[in-house]
Amino acid sequence: MAKQIDYAYGEKHQRVEVLQCLDLTVFAGESVAIVGASGSGKSTLLHVLGGLDKPQSGEVLVCNQCLVKASGRSPNAKQQGEIRNQHLGFVYQFHHLLPEFSALENVMMPLFVRGITPREAKAAAMPLLEKVGVASRAAHKPAELSGGERQRVAIARAMVTNPDCLLADEPTGNLDQENAAAVMDLLFTLQRSENTALIIVTHDYAIADRMEKTYTLTDKRLQLSENPLVTSAGQ
């Protein structure tokens, strides 16, 4: 939940308002798309929701825990990291996999942060690599994988902690049409099976139409719009 979020770049005369009095509530298992013109602040909003950027006013709550708060008592960096690791998963346009580690090791990383043993982490990560269809590539490093395979590994890494909410920033923006469709099908399958909330920033209205709700970011605020495919036939 984001409440009364204000966010701006720059100082004084160069200050650029990006988000203003913005509110957003997303429920467990809900899928939400955020669309809008380039430069409207979509990615900035996602960073604020994930506690990666601090707003000038307002707060973000995740599972009733304060992730970031502009004023008053706010979690420190360590506490924010723990909340993110416990409740949130992130998928970006570019996979951001660690190049020196294998696909399996990349998926295991968030579990190491929790202090889970390598054996337990592997036991959790391998089934996810199977689910996303790249178990046979578990020992390969990112440079040895195709673009679609790398993004599948990134999705497995985001889901390995069983997050309550998955934040995805243009997750198919760097893929061809066939791989993009496969990745989105995979995201929806995992999201539904795990009852994970899904928030996607996208410029692709075909993707947005598959979500339960679509918000357009315009004039620094979110406007809810109807999703014709969901309304008429469900996802």
UniProtKB/TrEMBL annotation:
Any Pfam family hit: ABC_tran
ABC transporter domain ranges (all copies): 2-233
GO cellular component, as recorded: transmembrane transporter complex
Keyword Nucleotide-binding in record: yes
Gene3D superfamilies: P-loop containing nucleotide triphosphate hydrolases
Alphabetized GO MF terms: ATP binding; ATP hydrolysis activity; transmembrane transporter activity
Origin superkingdom: Bacteria
Coiled coil: none
PROSITE patterns membership: ABC_TRANSPORTER_1, ABC_TRANSPORTER_2
UniProt keywords, alphabetically: ATP-binding, Nucleotide-binding, Transport
Family in the record: Belongs to the ABC transporter superfamily. Macrolide exporter (TC 3.A.1.122) family.
Protein name in UniProt: ATP-binding cassette domain-containing protein
Native species: Ostreibacterium oceani
Taxonomic lineage from the root: Bacteria, Pseudomonadati, Pseudomonadota, Gammaproteobacteria, Cardiobacteriales
